[in-house]
UniProtKB/TrEMBL annotation:
The keyword Transmembrane helix applies. It is found in: Endomembrane system. The lineage of its organism: Bacteria, Pseudomonadati, Bdellovibrionota, Oligoflexia, Silvanigrellales. Keywords: Membrane, Transmembrane, Transmembrane helix, Transport. This is NCS2 family permease. PANTHER family: XANTHINE/URACIL PERMEASE C887.17-RELATED, XANTHINE_URACIL PERMEASE C887.17-RELATED. It is a multi-pass membrane protein. The keyword Magnesium does not apply. The chain crosses the membrane at residues 12-32, 38-59, 66-86, 92-112, 132-150, 162-181, 188-206, 226-247, 334-354, 366-389, 409-431. One of its GO terms (molecular function) is purine nucleobase transmembrane transporter activity. InterPro entries: Azg-like, NCS2.
């Protein structure tokens, strides 16, 4: 397909629209990455977030030449912060190293045809289940951080008290819903600003003594642990990051290109190889800068709808990120209950993929169930991916459908099974005790 020409003013408006639609990530991602227990700083995470968003959106505009903007992905950031660093007690420099090695794998499969084999080996139901599970996990964390869901010794979780801050969070969610429903590009950002202002006017927070500060290049930049992350026990984690990143990228790229008409005569996305290459390089640089993997943002669709057709739109979006490098004092005072509604809302949006799942037989339903529900219940996206893939292959074998399993899927299942056995099974310890 040949893309229609556009004017410079049209591209500038489109770039601004995309920025306002995705600008919430400048606030939300640093708060997620610096959550209590991660050991990361909000100023370091902010600098990394802004710099990677600027750099990769700019490169996308020049190299891909389509109106695609990039930033650290929602879902991926929660995976790194809550599942790996907090949940599995992996030090954050090691977690950044894991992102780097998974990104190297991503770059390799983006250059060679391996990517297509990996994409084809997983059933579409499993892909949609992974997206839905991540969305459920994201929403659960948002509800927990808001205080609407609390721990309970009798029932594990329970409904928390609807106090003033929870009420403010719910108000933020309602504002987000109304504006998003009306297709306003500033829906999430406006919600965060309104709740923060109310918190200030009611003395819940105090504005900072200074409004601007220099970027923090000391806390996270090039602090990743490349050697410590190269362990056999981390291979399943690297694979989980890789799979999550790959399908997150593909779903965004396919969705954007299809809705915008950026497809060739065979229905394939234009500039797919270039887009995936930029996306994979963005992941690697994200680990060097000190944040979650950057990916093509689905919010780029807002700029496309506003008339963006070329890379100039992405360049405008990139330039809009630069001033945010100096806003750390402002962002650090934004309360968590102002940003958690965004986590909940984005999680709900990701759960929409459940409508694409078509399963009637138990050998399909059980892996889907395990993939979706083990992510929030184990507080780990990795566990959902591992159990989903292993159960799918085993159940197909049990019902006599082993022929439909590709060699690549067999290999993935074996790696996942080894990970589950070595990490969680007490059988190995029991057999060792018998020998002794």
């Amino acid at each position: 397909m040949k893309i229609k020409k556009s004017t410079i003013s049209q591209e500038v408006i489109a770039g601004l629209t995309t920025f306002f639609t995705m600008s919430y990530i400048v606030i939300v991602n640093p708060q997620v990455m610096s959550s209590p227990g991660t050991g990361m700083t909000i100023t370091g995470a902010l600098t990394a977030t802004v710099l990677i968003s600027f750099l990769m959106s700019f490169i996308a505009g020049i190299y891909i030449k389509l109106p695609y903007a990039l930033a650290p992905g929602m879902g991926l950031n929660v995976f790194i912060a809550y599942s790996l660093i907090i949940g599995e007690k992996i030090p954050w420099p090691t977690a950044l190293g894991l992102i780097f090695w998974s990104s190297i794998l991503f770059i390799v499969v983006s250059i060679f045809p391996i990517r297509q084999k990996i994409v084809e080996c997983l059933p579409s139901n499993m892909k949609h289940a992974m997206s839905c599970g991540i969305g459920l996990f994201l929403a659960f964390i948002g509800l927990k951080n808001l205080g609407l869901i609390v721990s309970n010794p009798a029932t594990f979780v329970a409904l928390g008290d609807i106090n003033y801050t929870v009420a403010l969070g719910l108000l933020g969610f309602i504002i987000s819903f109304i504006l998003y429903y009306k297709k306003k590009p500033y829906a999430f950002l406006f919600s965060i600003i309104v709740v923060t202002l109310i918190a200030f006017l009611t003395n819940q927070i105090q504005f900072p003594s200074q409004w601007f500060a220099l970027p923090d290049f000391d806390s996270h930049f090039f602090k990743l642990d490349l050697i410590g992350s190269l362990k056999w026990s981390f291979i399943p984690v690297i694979l989980a990051i890789f799979i999550t990143n790959l399908f997150d990228s593909l779903s965004s790229i396919i969705g954007l290109s299809t809705s915008a008409g950026f497809i060739d005569k065979n229905g394939n996305p234009l500039q797919l190889k270039q887009t995936l290459l930029v996306d994979s390089v963005a992941s690697a640089l994200s680990s060097l800068f000190g944040t979650a993997p950057a990916t093509v943002f689905i919010e780029s669709s807002a700029g496309i709808q506003a008339g963006g057709k070329t890379g100039l739109s992405s360049i405008v979006t990139a330039l809009c990120f630069l001033p945010c490098l100096f806003l750390a004092p402002i962002i650090t005072v934004i309360p968590a209950y102002a940003t958690t509604p965004v986590l909940i809302f984005v999680g709900i949006l990701m759960c929409q993929t459940v409508k694409h799942i078509q399963a009637e037989k138990l050998d399909d339903i059980i892996p889907i169930f395990l993939t979706i529900f083990l992510m929030p219940l184990t507080f780990s996206i990795t566990q959902g991916v591992l159990w989903g893939i292993v159960s799918y292959v085993l159940l197909k074998v049990f019902v006599g459908k082993a022929k439909i399993i590709s060699p690549v899927l067999w290999l993935l299942a074996v790696i996942c099974l080894i990970a589950l056995i070595t990490e969680h099974s007490t059988l190995i310890q029991y057999l060792s005790s018998l020998k002794n």
